[in-house]
Design a protein that fits this description.
With about 260 residues, this protein is an alpha/beta fold. It has eight helices and 14 strands. It has one domain: Ribonuclease Z/Hydroxyacylglutathione hydrolase-like (Metallo-beta-lactamase, Chain A).
Amino acid sequence: MIKVTFLGTGTSQGIPVIGSTHPVCLSTDPKDKRLRVSILVQWEDVNLVVDCGPDFRQQMLRKNLQHLNGILFTHEHADHSAGMDDIRPFFFRQGAISVFGSKRVMDNFAWRFDYIFSNDNKYPGAPSVSVQTVSPEHPFAFKGKTIIPIEVMHDQLPVLGYRIDDFCYLTDVKTISAHEQKKLKNLDVLVLNCLRKEEHPNHLNLEEALDLIEKLKPQRCYLTHISHLLGFHEEVSAELPPNVFLAYDTLSINSQ
């Protein structure tokens, strides 16, 4: 059994969008207020975060997380990685934080966050990381669980999703190859991005997400990486099939 908490369910700008007068951005429903996308996966005493975006500090404070065992990175875009500096409080208490991602992503971080990833003339206040390069060809073990990376395409950019037991987290998906879809059989819970109702070149829209869910047939699916253009949480929720739900910030679920 694992517990999953949605730390953020918004797209790259979050909801509300700065300066926007769109009705969803003006909503008073807390489920329409979305930080940048991330989840916390927990089992036993393990805390594992997927992605570390610009709202990471706020998410950690809201969750009151006391320790962090590692971070799985899907890709290098800022809404998934710009919170890297805020791992410092965990580092000061625990030492180096394990970070997992593709070679391309780790190389990008070594350039963008050289003061964290380099050991040369390290500033005393900078955190350190233990880099673990992963690929979709090789499942890996972490704290008693086997984690299966799944490669999806974000337009032309490969992105990694992750399966742990019968739970799988996929974000920034536009397409998934037939080979990678074979890793998604017999899921209890699938988390999948769904940006808006209109088609988008890099992300699944609602129609595409529902078609993929129907093909993969998870027991339950939670939609995330949501734009204000998808609509109000309550109204969209009423339109969904019985096993499909809109995730919202702070929602916690259990998965086998």
